Amino acid sequence: xxxxxxxxxxxxxxxxxxxxxxxxxxxxxxxxxxxxxxxxxxxxxxxxxxxxxxxxxxxxxxxxxxxxxxxxxxxx
Amino acid sequence: xxxxxxxxxxxxxxxxxxxxxxxxxxxxxxxxxxxxxxxxxxxxxxxxxxxxxxxxxxxxxxxxxxxxxxxxxxxxxxxxxxxxxxxxxxxxxxxxxxxxxxxxxxxxxxxxxxxxxxxxxxxxxxxxxxxxxxxxxxxxxxxxxxxxxxxxxxxxxxxxxxxxxxxxxxxxxxxxxxxxxxxxxxxxxxxxxxxxxxxxxxxxxxxxxxxxxxxxxxxxxxx
Lengths: 76, 223
Prior knowledge:
By secondary structure, chain A is of the alpha+beta class. Chain A has 2 helices and 4 strands. Helix content of chain A is 30%, strand content 34%. The N and C termini of chain B lie far apart (68 Å). Chain B folds into 2 domains: 59 residues, Orthogonal Bundle (Arc Repressor Mutant, subunit A); 149 residues, Orthogonal Bundle (Tetracycline Repressor, domain 2).
């Protein structure tokens, strides 16, 4: 069983597209479900921190894997 | 002689003064001696931080061309419809130039010099607009439209051109009447004109959306 419920690949896209697409994907989730996001924009690390802080979603993890940024966000 | 600064502080103060001088006079209009005088250090100390005038210029360009703006607020604080997000992005972008017009001056110089930093200015700054417009139009534009790809590319270029020209007029020719227009007003006006030009009508735009679609439920079909 995977540790996320939905996945979003925002590779190659600059802010605000990863955030906009994440917002849309999270709205389709049930409460308590997790979205995995993959991005390449170096600004996305700060952006997803700010996004979660402002929207009340929980940033479970934020890290780098093979040159890409991976985020896990849980809908509360 | 100058006050004592740590290495990184000294480097930062050299970068700051050089940015101002290069922005005003261009690469060829400034000498190392002039920069050293402005920072209040000897040329020898300056060379300890940067091996040549070119290395210093490249460092100034790198610092500015890698400055990214965050558009999170534009997404979170609006209902995420295409128009409001684009207005929010434009405001953030214009504000960055309003805060530091050297960003625009140095970008223009880099473009004329054919400096590799020009592509960084695009990647880190303008690509947000082209990505956003391309992606949003791709989602909603009718797939059987002739010249679809060209239409999307042209629309994106048109908007970047509008913003760039407004910035040039507002910040590099300060006698121009655009000086009196607030950046919020200017952003809204540019986006309104742009949306009208690509075929979206005001009535469709004013309809409140539920928050997750990038463009109103309209097939854009430019004639």
